[in-house]
């Protein structure tokens, strides 16, 4: 039995890839092996759906997007009340979560990032923080929670490994879209990280644009890609053998490696984003 964590980055319409990735993980590993999941932006509703057994509902949500009503430009839809209703529909009064989940929000009022433990919240609080997690700063107003304005944290910590750093985990699947092979925090943690980051290299506009015709293709890509990684790395039940396989993949991607120290990265980006947001709204 392994102790596994999952990290889901933000990526707007690229969240569909994450659905396929999670489907593959669920196929290869028992539900009880997944101990923690962390998400930012679109990764938050997807993480919640996975941990509450509602991944099919996320796919249905995507299929119900009316691009004629919402506009082909994704943020137009992201600010639409219809989306909030749909995402909010993932949360039920009696939901049971199979693993502990953290959703990332930017507390603009207190100038800090927060990793919210959804597994500890009431259904009404989960709803508020879910809305906040996808309140994209450029296109949406923040969500007021406990007299603080909460926003999407994608610009600050798009790959929220921080909540899992000190957890007792054997492996962490880290799914993100930045086309870089990051080295996370320290060697002890990084040796456990399985990086799922070889996705089609799309331009920013493509990320913001939702094409309903690509739903099945994107989910399939995420599923097939993640399955191939799992089959390549988990060649043994022995952890040391798995770690050797992870190290081998790391060596193969050495030319794309780049350090990403979590705490420093988050603090730096909080300062940058707070400054930009204040200046824009004071004009």
Q: What does the secondary structure layout of this molecule look like, with pairings?
A:
Blueprint lengths: L3 E5 L6 H14 L5 E7 L2 H9 L3 H9 L3 H4 L3 H5 L2 H8 L11 E8 L4 E6 L5 H11 L9 E3 L2 E5 L18 E5 L5 E4 L2 H4 L2 E4 L7 H5 L6 H19 L5 H14 L4 E4 L1 H21 L1
Parallel strand pairs: 1-2, 1-7, 2-3, 7-9, 8-10
Antiparallel strand pairs: 3-4, 3-6, 5-6
Helix pairs in contact: 1-10, 2-3
Q: Calculate Rg over CA atoms.
A: 18 Å
Distance separating the two termini: 56 Å
The amount of helix comes to 40-55%
* Helix/strand class: alpha/beta
- Which consecutive residue ranges, at least 5 long each, have pLDDT under 50? 71-81
Strand/helix succession: EHEHHHHHEEHEEEEHEHHHEH
| Largest sheet data | 8 strands, mixed
Which band does the percent of strand residues land in?
15-25%
The best one-word shape is globular
Oligomer state of the chains in this structure: single chain
Mean pLDDT score, rounded? 87
By DSSP, the count of extended strands is: 10
Number of helices: 12
Can you walk through the features of this model?
- By secondary structure, this protein is α/β, with parallel strands linked by helices.
- The chain is built from twelve helices and ten strands.
- Helix 1 packs across helix 10 and helix 2 packs across helix 3.
- The radius of gyration is 18 Å and the shape is globular.
